[in-house]
Write a structure and sequence with these properties.
Oligomer: single chain
Distance between the termini: 186 Å
Helix content: over 70%
Number of helices: 7
Number of strands: 0
CATH superfamily of one domain: ESAT-6-like
CATH architecture of one domain: Orthogonal Bundle
Radius of gyration: 69 Å
CATH class of one domain: Mainly Alpha
Length: 225
């Protein structure tokens, strides 16, 4: 039993899973490899064409017409093959571009599907009616808050009747007028007039002396005349 446990503990860890290569990448890689081989073949034939042209010129310089024509014939054959290879390479390159474009389109569509599912999952917990109720509740709370602020902004004990205050103020003014009148001296009555002293029956002594002086001065004036 103990050995089994030790063997299990010594077991190698599982190999990490290798990333799966995209099928599109694998396909385009094969096509690109074919294009590479065709380009190598094309370069080889172009060298053959150059060599056949040189040989044809050499034969022609030696007045060997038949030999020059044979080299030119092979040159034409290589040129036709090169043209076919060039066309094939162009077609394959267009296919690679089409595959890569289709792969990009597929990736975009897959990403859109993932985004759609994610959005649906998020919106599953959202209800338009609930949102409307929330907005209505917020509006009610704001209205209640404004009412509370208006009440708090009013002075305390502001429920006094102004008419009563005006009436009480009028009474205060009346009492004040009465107090002012009470401080004024009383008007003389008939009894108080009787109590006044009698006017003197003869002129004062100073007035009599003045009259005497005036008479003497008048007499002196007459005598001087």
């Amino acid at each position: 039993m103990g050995n089994d446990k030790s063997k299990a503990s010594r077991a190698p860890p599982p190999k990490a899973q290798q990333p799966v290569v995209s099928k599109t990448v694998d396909q385009t890689s094969k096509v690109k490899a074919t294009i590479s081989r065709l380009e190598q073949r094309q370069q080889f034939l172009e060298k053959k064409i150059e060599n056949e042209l040189k040989q044809a010129k050499l034969k022609n310089s030696k007045k060997d017409k038949q030999g020059a024509l044979q080299h030119l014939k092979r040159k034409k054959a290589y040129e036709k093959e090169t043209t076919k290879l060039h066309t094939a390479i162009m077609n394959l390159e267009q296919q690679v571009m089409a595959i890569e474009s289709a792969s990009v389109t597929q990736d975009v569509v897959s990403a859109m599907k993932v985004g759609q599912k994610a959005q649906e999952a998020v919106m599953a917990g959202v209800d338009v009616d609930d949102i409307q109720d929330i907005q209505d509740n917020i509006a009610d709370l704001q209205a209640r808050q404004e009412e509370v602020e208006d009440v708090l902004g009013q002075p305390l004990n502001d429920n006094i009747d102004m008419a009563e205050l005006e009436e009480e103020f009028a009474e205060l003014e009346a009492d004040g007028i009465e107090d002012e009148l009470s401080k004024l001296p009383a008007a003389p009555t008939s009894n108080s007039v009787d109590m006044l002293p009698d006017a003197p029956s003869h002129a004062p002594a100073s007035a009599v002396a003045d009259d005497d002086d005036a008479a003497l001065m008048e007499l002196a004036a007459e005598m001087a005349a």
